Amino acid sequence: MAQTPTGTALTELTRQVRQLAGLLDAAGDQLAAPCGQTGTRAAVLACADPQPQTVAAVARHLGLTRQSVQRTADLLVADGLAEYRPNPEHRRAHLLGLTPAGQRTLTALEITQEAWANRVSADLNEQELLRAAELLAQLTHRLRAGRGRAVSRDRAESG
Predict the structure, then answer these.
(1) What sign does the CA torsion over 14, 2, 141, 135 have?
(2) Is the model more confident about 61 or about 151?
């Protein structure tokens, strides 16, 4: 089957997003390093603010495995930046919340990230950035809804 024009465009977008994701991960690590954190640790802290979340909810939000977020959360708890709190809706799935030290660290990280975002976006068009963000949100929704399976059901059933 030949790829459609939109399929080709999505393939190119995917290549660009993967490159961008790698660069954003590296930038996140550089931005978080002065606070003694990594980009992933900063992202998990941000997910636990302002409302504590389960590790599974943080993992879904970040598109990471629950196990990797659990390891990161455990490290944040061990460092005194986060704590596990009782979850009134689930006995075993505790909520991850920030400690006062975690809140101070997150605030410092956010200040650094805001300055970085302002520098990187200085000569870009706000409306184009918002349209790009909306398109990525639509693709995320489709993939989470199962439309991004590697093999379609029709093809799997006929093969």
Answers:
(1) positive
(2) 61
Task: Dig out the tokens for 51 from the structure.
Answer: 């409302």
CB 95 within 8 A of CB 10: no
Task: Give pLDDT tens digits for 112-145.
Answer: 999 999 999 999 999 999 999 999 999 999 998 9
Mean pLDDT of the chain: 93
Number of domains within the chain: 1
CATH code assigned at 84: 1.10.10.10
Over residues 37-46, the pLDDT tens digits come to: 999 999 999 9
pTM: 0.86
**Alpha helices, DSSP H, located in the chain:** 5-32, 39-47, 55-62, 66-78, 100-120, 126-144, 153-158
Degrees, nearest 5: CA angle 14-15-19: 115
In a domain, 55, yes or no: yes
User: At 84, phi and psi to the nearest 5?
Assistant: -90, 135
CA distances from 69 to 4, 61, 148 (A): 37, 11, 23
Residue 4 gets which letter from DSSP?
P
